[in-house]
Amino acid sequence: MSKISLACLALAMLAAVPLAACGGSGSTSTTAVQNTTVSKGQQLIDLKKALDTGAISQSEYDAQRQKILAAP
């Protein structure tokens, strides 16, 4: 192998090392998911509070109450 070919090979190898680090394979990502289950009773209590404070109307209360009670 000539000195020029050897120098080109060495240069190519040196250029490949920094590019290999750009692949992102070493990066990590964490996603936190919080699953909370609220009981039907708590949902009904919260709904009643919303009605009592005037945040929702009686018809909205009735519709949401039926949805809560019908849910599995």
TrEMBL record:
Residues 1-20 form the signal peptide. Pfam families: SHOCT. Residues 43-69 form the SHOCT domain. InterPro entries: SHOCT. It comes from the Bacteria. Keywords: Signal. This is SHOCT domain-containing protein. It comes from Limobrevibacterium gyesilva.
